[in-house]
């Protein structure tokens, strides 16, 4: 069966009906790049979110939790970059709540229908005079066209080199429905929920409780399957909003078009996740690891993430070194059972290990393959039916350079 959705290459968070977005520079960043943005829905949207599992959670996460706890609906998401507002104590909490109140008043919505997100340097207080002036100007910058989505995407970037968006169109009850997303993330990526920051909009009608369930399920096989550097941020958050303005009946798990919606959401989140991995700080290539034949899907996920999280595997990919020994070593330390006599490994289509025994292969062909911008590692354990895919990037000299001077 083919995909039950159509990819919309030019789509963004403003493509679904009812959404406007925008961004501007308010002075949090040293450059003149946008550093404050918002997504606004013209009606209360069913909303859901997942958050970092890091014990040190930034103030905006607490504020967003409070908002969603009221009724599971949002009218707006306010985001700043350049400052994480994390580990900033009571003042940071007060500032996050002030941001929520100010944007709520500026656009005329209840404050409990506003989510807040921040990203940037940890441990520094926000320049609230800059934030407040930016919030006052934001309503005039909100647009429902592609430029609104573009400005918002630029406002959420930190060390990212490119914006990250995805969009699909599908049919529910005979009506066109869109699912779109935007994300930022380049470093401190090893999430146990989502990514640094991710935002999904849709005009489908879906209750908040079901959207929450589906968002968690989707996150487990997309954002939770990427790594850049093994560090989970204090600010990781993924928020989804469903306006319901496409019309048609409300989705349920028994709805005839629910599977299509779930597939579309998984595609959008998967594309954003891969874009984050590909844009890892200093990265030159995307590493995609596919594990099959595991005892369970959970075991396959553990092995796939161990492989892409290995500094040795990542370094070998950067150096175009077909060192399969680093891959098999990662398989063996993933903490799940395997048959040590039945493992196959391929680099692209090049077989380098079969039944846990070395296979003679063309080193020049392997070198040429590994010099590409995408490296596919395929591991078949021949141990069960479990399978998973994970994404990461190579480890380069530039990663150290970028992070050695992050604050300065």
From TrEMBL:
The record marks 194-195 as: Cleavage. One of its GO terms (cellular component) is cytoplasm. Its EC number is 2.3.1.35, 2.3.1.1. GO terms for biological process: L-arginine biosynthetic process; ornithine biosynthetic process. It catalyses: N(2)-acetyl-L-ornithine + L-glutamate = N-acetyl-L-glutamate + L-ornithine; L-glutamate + acetyl-CoA = N-acetyl-L-glutamate + CoA + H(+). Substrate binds at residues 158, 184, 195, 281, 403, 408. The active site is at 195 (nucleophile). It is found in: Cytoplasm. Keywords: Acyltransferase, Amino-acid biosynthesis, Arginine biosynthesis, Autocatalytic cleavage, Cytoplasm, Multifunctional enzyme, Transferase. Pathway: Amino-acid biosynthesis; L-arginine biosynthesis; L-ornithine and N-acetyl-L-glutamate from L-glutamate and N(2)-acetyl-L-ornithine (cyclic): step 1/1; Amino-acid biosynthesis; L-arginine biosynthesis; N(2)-acetyl-L-ornithine from L-glutamate: step 1/4. One of its GO terms (molecular function) is L-glutamate N-acetyltransferase activity. Catalyzes two activities which are involved in the cyclic version of arginine biosynthesis: the synthesis of N-acetylglutamate from glutamate and acetyl-CoA as the acetyl donor, and of ornithine by transacetylation between N(2)-acetylornithine and glutamate. Heterotetramer of two alpha and two beta chains. PANTHER family: ARGININE BIOSYNTHESIS BIFUNCTIONAL PROTEIN ARGJ (PTHR23100), ARGININE BIOSYNTHESIS BIFUNCTIONAL PROTEIN ARGJ, MITOCHONDRIAL (PTHR23100:SF0). This is Arginine biosynthesis bifunctional protein ArgJ. It comes from Cohnella lubricantis.
């Amino acid at each position: 069966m083919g995909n039950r959705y159509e990819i919309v290459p030019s789509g963004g968070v403003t493509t679904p009906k009812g959404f406007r977005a925008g961004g501007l520079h308010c002075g949090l960043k040293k450059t003149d790049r946008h550093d404050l943005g918002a997504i606004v829905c013209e009606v209360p949207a069913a909303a859901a979110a997942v958050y970092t599992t890091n014990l040190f959670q930034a103030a905006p996460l607490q504020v967003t939790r409070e908002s969603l706890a009221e009724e599971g609906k949002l009218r707006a998401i306010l985001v700043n970059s350049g400052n994480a507002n994390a580990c900033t104590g009571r003042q940071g909490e007060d500032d996050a709540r002030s941001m929520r109140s100010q944007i709520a008043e500026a656009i005329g919505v209840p404050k409990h229908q506003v989510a807040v997100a921040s990203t940037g340097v940890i441990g520094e207080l926000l320049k609230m005079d800059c934030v407040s002036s930016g919030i006052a100007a934001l309503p005039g910058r909100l647009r429902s066209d592609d430029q609104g989505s573009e400005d918002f995407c630029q406002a959420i970037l930190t060390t990212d080199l490119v914006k990250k968006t995805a969009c699909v169109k599908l049919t529910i009850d005979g009506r066109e429905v869109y699912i779109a997303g935007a994300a930022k993330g380049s470093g401190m990526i090893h999430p146990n929920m989502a990514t640094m920051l991710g935002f999904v909009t849709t005009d489908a009608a879906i209750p908040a409780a079901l959207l929450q369930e589906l968002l968690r399920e989707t996150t487990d096989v997309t954002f939770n399957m990427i790594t850049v550097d093994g560090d989970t941020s204090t600010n990781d958050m993924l928020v989804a909003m469903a306006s319901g303005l496409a019309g048609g009946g409300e989705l349920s798990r028994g709805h005839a078009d629910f599977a299509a919606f779930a597939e579309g959401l998984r595609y959008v989140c998967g594309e954003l996740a891969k874009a984050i991995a590909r844009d890892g700080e200093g990265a030159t290539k995307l590493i995609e690891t596919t594990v099959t034949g595991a005892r369970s899907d959970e075991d396959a996920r553990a092995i796939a993430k161990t492989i892409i999280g290995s500094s040795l595997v990542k370094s070998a990919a950067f150096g175009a070194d077909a060192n399969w020994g680093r891959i098999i070593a990662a398989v063996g330390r993933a903490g799940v059972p395997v048959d040590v006599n039945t493992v196959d490994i391929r680099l692209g289509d090049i077989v380098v290990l079969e039944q846990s025994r070395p296979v003679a292969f063309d080193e020049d062909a392997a070198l040429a393959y590994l010099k590409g911008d995408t490296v596919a590692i395929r591991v078949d354990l021949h141990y069960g039916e479990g399978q998973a895919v994970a994404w990461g990037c190579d480890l380069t000299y530039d990663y150290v350079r970028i992070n050695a001077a992050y604050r300065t």
